[in-house]
Amino acid sequence: MMPVRVLAVASEVYPIVKTGGLADVAGALPSALKAHGVEMRTLMPGYPDVMRRVSGAEEIRHWPDYFGGPGRLLAGSHEGLDLFVLDVPHLYARPGNPYVTPEGLDWPDNGVRFAALSRVAADIGHGLVPAFVPDVVHAHDWQAGLAPAYLHYDGGARPGTVMTIHNMAYQGKFASELVGSIGLPWHSFNVNDLEYFGGISFLKAGLQFADRITTVSPTYAQEIQTDEGGMGFGGLLRARADALSGILNGIDIEVWNPQTDPHIAYRFGADELTFRAANKAVLQQQFNLDSSDEAPLLGVISRLSWQKGLDLLLETIPMILEQGMQLALLGSGDRDLQDRYQAAARANPGRIGVLIGYDEILAHLIQAGSDALIVPSRFEPCGLTQLCALRYGAVPIVSRVGGLEDTIVDIGEADRDATGFKFGPVSADALAWTLRKANTTFHNKSAWRRLQLNGLATDVSWRNRAGDYATLYRNLMAARRPA
Predict the structure, then answer these.
(1) Which residues contribute to the annotated binding site for ADP-alpha-D-glucose?
(2) Residues 130-170: tens digit of each pLDDT
(3) Architecture of the domain spanning 270-456
(4) Which string of DSSP letters, residue by residue, matches 147-177?
């Protein structure tokens, strides 16, 4: 097996920094790739949490002026992850979320902050670190989108490049004036390069110049080639269809393992599903819900947004109450949705529980104690919560989009092999109809148990998905090798 060296470039990596599924992928993929002969090191910004956690960091480069202030490139590790850290305090030494101010507004210099990350990624690609010269630079989302562009404009020999889209909705759009200040040639500001509706887009840069483009499910790879799903990039992706593929995400089955999970009340496996009732009781207590094993408990772990379809779920609450179901929701996001869910909880004590925010430990308990997990997204590149639900015996109820379509087998399509429920179109009426169907199935104990056992038997690990990435890297290297 030919060894491969890959530099991954990501703005967040679990368990160090996480705001969404990108971090989970960036954190789990390197370890999974080792079995496929791929050595991956991940480049990330030196946020305060990163600087506190990276052990044995070695300074391998220092700049007196890096994008407006002193900076260093460090090599270190954390929990088995091999890391390069771009330590530039004037860009990254800031409180809270990597992308927004404490008031929830984008940092005004985000363009510079993530151009700096892409620039050093390109430099590592060119051999900045002699001990690790990558065969492939793998950029994740818009924050790393300029890495393939820098490598393109630098000219000369370079590694292969891969761009992975985790969500088309986030495009890294900035004013055209940024071009010169981040070291890109002015001729890059045209419609065939970086220009995007009068400004520039870091995501477009990656899509335009990466040798290969991936996204996180086969169905989403098709959806983003449409005008609606492409969100402005449908035409570009149709033109690059030969370079585009969808590779499903996996989850870290060491972290998400109900038999060893330290965050749940009672551990269990496929032969011990009766212990889920004890987790359900603790979950009901946490959310101040009535204690009842006969009331189906619907769990939600989500960003509260239009994309996630959480406004549609709100419309079904009268039906949820009428059907005798309970709802436990953990999430944050749009202020209006937060307020409306909290109002629903106040109006229906014991039936609806809402906690605004995010708590990793509580997320594990929701997976272990909910009877069903709802993911009603209008679009969903892959989704990870439904994969965790399969692993924990929480039956997924999902919309027929993106990775949700690819990862759940609907009870109406293959009764004996079904793992959950899918609904479409993505509307409140379709969701309500499917929730009623799930409620009826829940009271058929043998049918519900079969759904749970099928889910537990589903391979949601990175094992095969990592092999797909390894094949992609090797095929790219072979295609770029001189004849």
Answers:
(1) 18
(2) 999 999 999 999 999 999 999 999 999 999 999 999 999 99
(3) 3-Layer(aba) Sandwich (3.40)
(4) HHHHHHHH-SS--EEEEEES-TT---EE-TT
